Amino acid sequence: MALAGLEGEGPGAPEPLVRNVSDTARWVAAFRARETERADALFRDPYARRLAGERGERIAQALPLRRGRDWTLPIRTYLFDAFIVEGLAQGVDLVVNLAAGLDARPYRMDLPPSLRWVEVDLPEILDYKEGILAGETPRCALRRVRLDLSDETSRRPLFEELGREGTRALILTEGLLIYLTPEQVGGLARDLAVPASFQRWALDLSSPGLKRMLDREVGPRLTEARAPFQFAPAEGPGFFEPYGWRAVDVRSFFKWAAKKNRLPLWMRLLALLPESKGRQGNAPWAAVCLLGKTDGATTGR
């Protein structure tokens, strides 16, 4: 579908369809809704359609994933879900979801009531989500914090506070880091390494090759919304080692899409080829990575 004519109505300059980074959360929610409606869904998110809203569906129609790659966002969600389930089995008692957006995991996943779950994001997107989910009951102890994560002077005290609330915390940054500069990602990684209870960090990474592909497909629209893709380190998960984190597990979107029978036929043979879990380059590659603290991780700044 052409983008023209989808951006608003009325006199004067039309409102951009993707107004800001918060609108990308509506875009992702639309893909979660589509996955939920499949007979063979990898997960069920009964709130996704409401959270995406009409704007989220319009964005998904205007910025479609290229044919044959509509499995990527559902696979990302599935892999984050898996790391959460595994973390709970290993004693995680606190989940901190940074840039939580329209994630509904505290409502849709089978979570212990004793689990503490903290969502951090901008006021606008959390206000919107609370309005949509008013009357729904989360399955664990849920807290929302309205905060601009780029504000280091505000996030550091929050991390210190949250570090005292649990003994084994899992940090989530789903769909966040790609919008940050390498310097911003490094600063966030350094701050997250400080609390002793922040033991695990699940994040998604893209290769430079994939970023170039995405820039061609959706980059102009995101740049217009002042939300360009920026972070795709050639080092792969190794980028985080100087900041106190090491890769514990790396799960490729492509490999897991093959395992879950989501790849089109012409891609299945490609999935048999080996992939690097470390340094990345020109090939399109994305993964959800689980990081753990390195020995002697930084405890100061």
Draw up the topology in text.
Layout: H1 21-36, H2 48-62, H3 72-89, E1 94-98, H4 105-108, E2 116-121, H5 123-132, E3 141-146, H6 152-163, E4 169-173, H7 182-192, E5 198-206, H8 208-224, E6 245-252, H9 253-259, H10 265-268, E7 286-293
Parallel strand pairs: 1-2, 1-4, 2-3, 4-5
Antiparallel strand pairs: 5-7, 6-7
Number of strands: 7
Strand order in space, largest sheet: 3-2-1-4-5-7-6
SSE ordering: HHHEHEHEHEHEHEHHE
Low-confidence stretches: 1-11
How many structural domains are formed by the residues?
2
Which word captures the global form? globular
Q: What is the CATH-assigned architecture of the largest domain?
A: 3-Layer(aba) Sandwich
Beta-strand level of the residues, as a percent range?
A: 15-25%
The computed structural class is: alpha/beta
Report the end-to-end length measured between terminal Cα atoms.
49 Å
| CATH domain topology of the largest domain | Rossmann fold
Radius of gyration: 19 Å
Specify the biggest β-sheet: 7 strands, mixed
What's the pLDDT, averaged over the residues?
88
The CATH superfamily of the largest domain bears the name Vaccinia Virus protein VP39
Helix content: 25-40%
* CATH class placement of the largest domain: Alpha Beta
